[in-house]
Give the backbone structure.
Amino acid sequence: MAKLKGVFKRFSQECETADRHQEKELETRYYKVSLDKVYDEVKRYFSAEGYEISSESKDHGEIMITRKKSPKMFLIATVVSTRPMHTAVDLKASTDQMVVGGAYPKLKEEITACYVALSKEMREAEK
């Protein structure tokens, strides 16, 4: 049954992080910097070629991004300060496109690439 569930998951068209996720690499990331710094870094990362920030709300800590490269994706980055100098980043990626071999691995790859880039720029913190 677990193998069958894994096959269906591979063809899922959305992927998101969570505080306690089954997959370690998709757990929420925390950084030891201010909310403004993390928010600006996330915006900078998604200002690169191939992405378009379609909407943002600093008050709510959300940035909506459209990825123009194939497969096209819609991403939501949520940046929340949990305490002073301790900021969390959650990401959700989804696509409407059919991907040969399943969309989930591509969505997961997009999220982990963002986390790797952010971790190079800022110091990670414990939960």
Remarks:
- DSSP finds three helices and six strands in the chain.
- The radius of gyration is 15 Å.
- The domain at 1-121 is CATH 3.30.310.80 (TATA-Binding Protein).
- The chain has a mean pLDDT of 92.
